[in-house]
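Quick illustration, no need to memorize.
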Amino acid sequence: MHTKNVRTFLTAGMDSLMPHAQRLIELRQIFTQALPNNLRRSCSIANYKQGKVVIFAENSAVAAKLKLLLPAVRDHLLKFAVEVTGIEVQVQPAISRPNEPISEIYLSANAAESLTRLSRQLPDSKLKESIESLAKNARSKH
């Protein structure tokens, strides 16, 4: 097969998929507007064909919450002229997302000094060691 024929074949295949992919992107945007914030990252429209909407939920708890919201979701989709003949919710665990960055919390210099004073008042113990370590770490950040 010549390079030109392969390119034509691939382009034709992509051209037929693009309208469906674009429609799914639009539906996902409309769908997320109908959800409360705590569910938006946990579910998504997986497919839409002949009026049937398939939604993936990360776990069964999300699926259960979503099923309670289906009438409102359907009404929201209809408001945007999306034909909805049925909605199916499937549990599909998400591909693990990279961990969200953990914001570091630093103790002030005053807090570090207060911990040092407290540790001096304590008898030798695990608690005293922990407080001394915390104070030392806090001082090293300043």
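Helices lie at 3-33, 37-40, 60-79, 109-121, 126-140.
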